[in-house]
Structure formats: structure tokens, C-alpha cells
Amino acid sequence: MRRALALAASPGVPLGPNPRVGCVLLADDGTTVAEGYHRGAGTAHAEADALAQAGERARGTTAVVTLEPCNHTGRTGPCARALVEAGVRRVVYAAADTNPVAVGGAQTLRAAGVDVEAGLLADESRALNRTWTFAVEHGRPFVTWKLATTLDGRSAAADGTSRWISSRAARLDTHRLRGQADTMLVGTGTVAVDDPALTVRDEHDVPLPDQPLRAVMGLRDLDPGRRVLDDHAETVLLRTRDPHEALAALRARDRQHVFLEGGPTLAAAFLRAGLVDEVVAYVAPMFLGAGLGAVADLGITTIADAFRPTVTDVAVLDPVEAGEQPNLRLTMTPAPRPAPRPAPTPAPATATVQHDEER
């Protein structure tokens, strides 16, 4: 199974929209007959890939697969039926396929007399496809909120400037994480004020060939000259301020992993809605003392109601340019928190600086 997991994670395999799957066919003496893995939507599934390599040698083998064989016909045929027809006598799979259009593979195999065992290294398989699994089981994309902040929690100075708070090493690392998502999400305010490209770029600031979808959320129209509307990637405007509606629209496009890079108002909206599944914070060793906060009002009035994510990883990003200092990257998982106490009546709105996602 560990070999099957390694095959599933082969370099160059897309992270979506299909799960990454590996398969190893074993003879009775434990020797490998054939191996296969899924290379992305429209290509042969892992089981079909291994069966094609094995040919007649597949008869009587044990198939070790990282995901329950599918039971439906899409661009390719059902893997459960292919295993039966190839004469595979036993199937061991890691994680169950919870996709409602593909479930039932194990049942089909058992009904045909194939010996089936489930659950071997299931957690490892789910981790390999964590955003696909999350999207299938929750009916919405997994959301990673990325922020860059000073030691005193500022994302921009008092005059609105924010270029650059984080180091070049942190920015390069951000592009690495962007490349793991299939959607970049900001608000119309960020597009209007910051004019971000929202692309994944290399160390020379050149956009890579494969780009996530750029999603802009809000009610205002976009200036046609904004960089987010260039031809480096596809862009969609989500005409809503509701995070639930935005994620539903993205899920309808088969999106599984949203990388949230909007300003403090949009971040607060997702946090208050309980729709942030991972937080990645880049912390620079500087103080501004005033300026824009990293997140807007969360309705928290007492320390007991504080938003307290669990830290899962801490990394020091060493400088890659002269004159810079190391930055910290904190990766965190939000934990359920009590509903905030009623907030006091807000003061009249004042003019905003950059990142106002509701404008």
C-alpha cells in the first residue's frame, strides 16, 4: 500500500479535480505483477492502468489500491467491473470513495466473488487527497486563508501601503502554496485598490503555464484594465457578499481548494461564517503601530471568545535577498469556538483604506 501511495503522489499528477490514486497488482508470492496510477481527469484510472500493463497476468492477483475502486462510468469505465473481468481475486483498498456518483465499488466486487478488505493506511490516503476528500464530504471547497502581517498584526501602514510587509522568501513560498490550490479568491475592493495579478509565478516573477481560477467576490463592477482580467488565467466574478454562496458557486465549477487572499473584511466574513479550514500566516519582524489590521471585526468583545486556531507547523523562512530578515510561517487549523457575544452598536462608517472587500 505504501508503494501504491507513492505512485499516486507521482510528480506532475494534478491535485484535482480527480483524486490521486495508485494501484499495485501482486502475485500470490508477493511479487509485483504491474503498477499503475491516475494521471488526471480523462486518463486511465490507476486500476485500469495497472491492468493494461499486466494483461493476462492480472488473473488471480491481489490489487492494492489507495482508493475504493469506482463504480460508475464517466470518461472511463467502472474500475470495479474492470477488476472483476480481469480475474483479480482479491482487492485491498485504503480509503472508501465517498463520492456519491462513484460509491459501491466494494459491493460490486463482493457480489462478483472478489475478496475485499478495506481501511489499510486509510488516513494516509485521505491526507494525500485531503482537499478532494473534504470537498466531496462537505459539499464545498476547502478554504485556506493566507495572510501576511507585522508583529503587531498590521497588513498595511497607516497610509495604506503594504508593499512589502513579507520577505521575498515568504512571497516565493506563497506562490508555492498558490500552486496547490485550484482557486484564488479576493474581493472587488482588493482588485480596485491593489490591482493584484493573482497568478502563480516562478522565482523570476513569470506566470507558470498552469494557473488556478481567479475568483473575485463582490457586487461592484471591475475596471476592465485590472490585471486580474488579463489572459494569464481564467477569472470569474462572483456577484455576492455571502461566503456560503461564493463557495457554492465555486463548487458548481468543480473547485476543491480555495486560497483566500482577500483583505480583512473578506477574511472576517469567512471566519465568522466558519468557512476557514486552514490558516497560513506569514509574520514579518516589524512594528507599524498603526494601519490596517489583518482581519476586521469578528464580533469578539472578551478574551474568552477569542479565535484560537491550533498551530500545526512553524517554519522559519531564511532570507533570499540582502537586507531582509527571516520571516515566520505559521500553519494553523481553526477550532470550533463559542458564538461571539452580541457586539455593541457600531460607530458610523468611516472612509476605508485599501483591502475593503465590501466596496
TrEMBL record:
<protein>
    <recommendedName>
        <fullName>Riboflavin biosynthesis protein RibD</fullName>
        <ecNumber>3.5.4.26</ecNumber>
        <ecNumber>1.1.1.193</ecNumber>
    </recommendedName>
</protein>
<dbReference type="Pfam" id="PF01872">
    <property type="entry name" value="RibD_C"/>
</dbReference>
<dbReference type="InterPro" id="IPR016193">
    <property type="entry name" value="Cytidine_deaminase-like"/>
</dbReference>
<comment type="pathway">
    <text>Cofactor biosynthesis; riboflavin biosynthesis; 5-amino-6-(D-ribitylamino)uracil from GTP: step 2/4.</text>
</comment>
<dbReference type="InterPro" id="IPR024072">
    <property type="entry name" value="DHFR-like_dom_sf"/>
</dbReference>
<feature type="compositionally biased region" description="Pro residues">
    <location>
        <begin position="335"/>
        <end position="347"/>
    </location>
</feature>
<comment type="similarity">
    <text>In the C-terminal section; belongs to the HTP reductase family.</text>
</comment>
<keyword id="KW-0686">Riboflavin biosynthesis</keyword>
<dbReference type="InterPro" id="IPR002734">
    <property type="entry name" value="RibDG_C"/>
</dbReference>
<feature type="domain" description="CMP/dCMP-type deaminase">
    <location>
        <begin position="1"/>
        <end position="117"/>
    </location>
</feature>
<dbReference type="GO" id="GO:0008835">
    <property type="term" value="F:diaminohydroxyphosphoribosylaminopyrimidine deaminase activity"/>
</dbReference>
<dbReference type="InterPro" id="IPR002125">
    <property type="entry name" value="CMP_dCMP_dom"/>
</dbReference>
<comment type="similarity">
    <text>In the N-terminal section; belongs to the cytidine and deoxycytidylate deaminase family.</text>
</comment>
<dbReference type="InterPro" id="IPR016192">
    <property type="entry name" value="APOBEC/CMP_deaminase_Zn-bd"/>
</dbReference>
<dbReference type="InterPro" id="IPR050765">
    <property type="entry name" value="Riboflavin_Biosynth_HTPR"/>
</dbReference>
<feature type="region of interest" description="Disordered">
    <location>
        <begin position="324"/>
        <end position="359"/>
    </location>
</feature>
<dbReference type="InterPro" id="IPR004794">
    <property type="entry name" value="Eubact_RibD"/>
</dbReference>
<dbReference type="GO" id="GO:0008703">
    <property type="term" value="F:5-amino-6-(5-phosphoribosylamino)uracil reductase activity"/>
</dbReference>
<comment type="pathway">
    <text>Cofactor biosynthesis; riboflavin biosynthesis; 5-amino-6-(D-ribitylamino)uracil from GTP: step 3/4.</text>
</comment>
<dbReference type="Pfam" id="PF00383">
    <property type="entry name" value="dCMP_cyt_deam_1"/>
</dbReference>
<keyword id="KW-0521">NADP</keyword>
<comment type="function">
    <text>Converts 2,5-diamino-6-(ribosylamino)-4(3h)-pyrimidinone 5'-phosphate into 5-amino-6-(ribosylamino)-2,4(1h,3h)-pyrimidinedione 5'-phosphate.</text>
</comment>
<keyword id="KW-0511">Multifunctional enzyme</keyword>
<keyword id="KW-0560">Oxidoreductase</keyword>
<keyword id="KW-0378">Hydrolase</keyword>
<keyword id="KW-0862">Zinc</keyword>
<keyword id="KW-0479">Metal-binding</keyword>
